[in-house]
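[Solved] Which block belongs to which protein?

Original post:
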Amino acid sequence: MRYALMFGPEANAFLFANSGLFTVREAFDVLVPVNGETALIASDGAAHKHRRRLVQPAFHRRRVDGYIARMAENADALIDTWRPGETVDVYAVLREVTRRTTVQLLFGDRLAADEDLLAGELQTLLDGIDRPYSQLVALRSVPNPFWRKVLQARTTVLDRLMREIADRRMDPTPRHDVLGLLLDSRDEDGGGLTDVELQDQAISLMAAGYETTSAALGWAVHLMLTTEGVWERARAEVGDAPPTAESLPAFTYLGHVVDEVLRLRPPVVMSARRVAEDFEFQRYRVPAGTMLLYSPYVTHRMPELWPEPGEFRPDRWDPDSPLHRPATPATFLPFGGGQHRCIGSVLALTGIKVTLARLLARTDLVHDGAPVTPRSITAMRPREGVHVLVKEVRPA
């Protein structure tokens, strides 16, 4: 297979502005057995526009604002289990609570209460796509126990989801989670998502909704505790009260922290497109059939765009800082860009900020000093977790 690597803001802008030159179906072909044929991540053209239009209302900011209280409650429930003096892998436990919260918000309390589904089959399913591209190709090409287990996990998750859908169709009581909105969503012709489309969107939203969010949370705690003054300054800003839709936007410094985490450690290291027709870019001719790779990680560490690019500097997002550079969709792209920008970006950002706000308000933590290194490119996360000493837990 022929590859082309297009890195940097000019390349990103060209890619996002010329979506007709590329397809995503072939680029993400290895994810289709898990995410499904009709998932947004693997949809192109009119089909993608149609499905995105039906899914988008579930992720509007006003909808997400209604989830803030539940996010805070789940973070508080986790913190309530901690005791001063104990050591916690904060990435691991935040991963669990993020998974539970994601399923609650997407598909309701009944699915979220099914711990066997959450901790077993769903995790097996997600592990199935957390492999390098060449390994995924190989695993699909020959019969093997691992891939059979992944496909069986998908069947189990979908069976459980379809039982939930059937129950809701029998009981027309309005539900305000994402599944309820997807079931009710209609286009201008009165058509909605088919059962297959519902299944595929559900699986792909679950996969995208918690792996990347929990990875960002793990990096945030690590970077905030290992950079002098950051935790204390953010703590002073958020105060003690649980965040609300009105107060969360006022946490300016916390917003800078989250942006800087996503710049330095973007969960999605790189992404891909398949070239549908020949094109030229900066004197290079790229033929159809080429696999094109672009990288948020590379862009976010370019010194010509970001002074001191390898350093964690939340103040660079303050317009008054000498390190400040205005971010654009081509220079700051933790959620991708163009027509395929992550549809759940507002939900993810809100979840990260709410969870961090509760940690700041209720805990004093000390990093254990162990080095933290990244692993994986599908959701770059701390390899051995983030281990902290709990010094204090304050009541909610």
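(Second protein starts here: sequence line, then its structure tokens.)
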Amino acid sequence: MADAREALTAGVLDGVPHAFLTGKGGDGEPDPQRLLPGGALVLVRQVHSALAATADAPFDPRPEADAVVTATPGLVLGIVTADCAPVLLADTRAGVVAAAHAGWRGAHHGVLEATVRRMEALGATRAGIVAAIGPTIARDSYEVGWDFVEQFEERHERFFLRADTPGKWHFDLPAYVRWRLESMRLAAVEDLGLDTYADPLRFHSYRRATHRGEPTEGRQYSLIGLPA
């Protein structure tokens, strides 16, 4: 069966081979050739960490990390998500790209900053990096309890909204991720503004599947390539 997953793109990454693939219309790892002819897919073993890896070839075995960075032409970097924020980054002048998996834990502990530092080590500059946030669980769909809220500082209060349910709040993950990216003074940050939880026809959502008692294995891929 042909891979019919829809490929969403971001304006800030115009001219850079990239795609936020929807979760429906195909199974398994995507074909990197669809994004970059001759490209080789690079994946890591995601563990909700703040670890970023640098790749100059596909990994074997895959290291534990939640972001991958490269300056090697011909590679297609990929991460998988199902509510967490997929973030694709590029500095086209330096020839450096990156893909990051930013769940609340990884974002809170610095995975985005670690990704940018890895990019800088390869020659990128913050003034040259653009970043796009793909489909992510939105604030109104993300209800949390006090045990979650208390892990944040008072300065993060703006990312929480009291829910109608007593003792519950809504957490704005995409806004939090965007704030962390913008705090690094990157050239531009774009949020596609798509809620994985609220769109079951296009996206897998771990939280939605849990609430419905459905299988939770579904994921969507986000990819970015560096042409040869």
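Accepted answer:
You had them paired correctly. Confirming on the second one: The chain is about 15% helix and 25% strand.
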